[in-house]
Amino acid sequence: MARYLIRRVCYALAVMLAVSFIAFAGARTSGDPVAMIAGEQMSQEERAQLRESLGLNKGILGQYVSFLSHALRGDFGQSWRNGEPVAGLIASRIPATLELVGLSLVLALLTGIPLGVFCAARRGHPVAGLLQMIALAGISVPSFVMGVLLILVFSVQTGWLPPFGRGEVTELGWWSTGLLTPSGRLALILPAVSLAIWQATLVMRLVRAGMADVLISDHVQFARARGLPPRLILWRHALRHCLVPVVLMLGLNTGQLISFALVTETVFQWPGLGQLFLQAVTHVDMPVLVAYLCLAALIFVVINTLTEMLATRIDPRLRDGGGRV
Questions:
Q1: What is the tens place of the pLDDT at every residue in 286-312?
Q2: Number of C-beta neighbours around residue 46 at 10 A
Q3: Taking a C-beta distance cutoff of 8 angstroms, is the pair 259, 296 a contact?
Q4: Domain limits, the chain
Q5: Of 33, 119, 125, 208, which is least surrounded by CB within 10 A?
């Protein structure tokens, strides 16, 4: 276990260094920061002082070392668009994205796993066939189309749910949450459902495919011969052996959703990381883009490592060396 963690940490550090250098070098070659920040009335002397304060007089490697030393302390500089600290901008958007992604994952698991088990246990049943057709449609329909349809039905026609925004939020220190207010909970439903539909269909299809193979395996047949209840066989013996692909898929999708939930946050005007990224791209706000890409790489590395560790706990056969992780 210790060797596994050390190896994963080394991989994570290598990935983070590579991503941060590529992002930083791309930002520096995309244009002159002084020309983007300085106004038309700024003199040449003031431009020179600004260039020196930004550390642009050093070479690219020296600039990267300086950036890295500040980034390790949580200082990613200031936004070129509004002059605010980049770390503060990102921190203010993280709660909204985490709440959205977290609720969508819970909804996907609560619906996808039971439906997948039902379709595997009732193969050939008309309801199972209908569910598989719905799952295929859920995967095929683009997320922005699904979001627009949800707004049309539940906001425009019925008026049950708000079409955009986060509603009223409550400040808990630096964390802002809408889960404690009625309007915040209502505003979270549509974007969370929009994200959860695609994930739930994937979970359902993975569970169904895995269960179909496990239910005809020898150990399940032996459990039936022992007279174990069918529900116990399904939910304890069979389901456990097909959870590994589900865990791996959700782990990879979680990192992707946290970092790049662009479409959903744009459709529902959700003030999360995805919307911040699009604004930074629109205004060529390179400090925000660099910090965002570094954060996205960190999220992927951490979640992938945790996902692999959880998968080895579910299925010990994935461990290296006959039981050593």
A1: 888 888 888 888 888 888 777 777 777
A2: 13
A3: yes
A4: 2-71, 93-318
A5: 125
